[in-house]
Amino acid sequence: MFNRGETVQSKSWRPVLDQGKHHRAGLGFILMSTDLAAESDFFDMAPEGVAVHITRLKTDDFTTGETLSRHIEFMADAASRIQPDTKPDVVSYSCTSGSIVIGEDRVMEGIVKGAPWAKPMCIVTGVTDALRELNSRKIVVGTPYLDEINTAEAEYLMARGIEILDIQGLNLTTGIEFGCVTPGYWKEFALAIDRPDAEAIFLSCGGIRALEVADEIEQLTGKPVVTSNQAQFWSCLRRAGITDPIKGFGQLFSRPGNTIKK
To answer: Where are the alpha helices (DSSP H) in the chain?
Structure first.
């Protein structure tokens, strides 16, 4: 029994240590302060032994090319705050439109500056990795974005050899709105924009709740469905050496990632 004024003197203990709960890999993600979907998506997809670390990057809740371009000013600082003591294997910037507006190379330079121990990634790199792995070169795209962002995204994907059969945006302006569109609506939207000649359906944006219905859309259409969070997480896992097949989030997770340019 401990009495006031006494000094605690512990016995000699020999604790049993292992490699920790997340002994296989650590993944870090830089999310927008307005993102309502990605964090839960990542934890849903994470296999046993893989850590998911999150930090938030302050952004205006008005999504235009101008506001997105300012994310780069805070990239290195955000990357530096993701578990620097445990050093995640991969750190990724989780904004599809921001990746396109800023450019992959600049994003990755910022991440390397803040977290030189990690492989740098950004979400749109994961998207192109996924489309390549699925051998999908003719796609339809659905987004929540304004058409100025949709135009930039179409140009970006076309420059990488992907044919855009159609791209449709909801013309919403805020990240909070993005996250409030229901999964059921994303399913309806995907089915409405699908075309017989499309090899895949891409639902773009890390802040939307499309992952929840990706598997269902695949079953209805018979073709691959790529979402931003799914593609990013799959690519980050493969870059960290984790090749587990994961069920429930689309056929992409059955693929080993041999086509990824690491």
So the answer is: 38-45, 65-69, 75-80, 96-102, 104-114, 123-133, 147-159, 175-180, 183-193, 211-221, 228-239
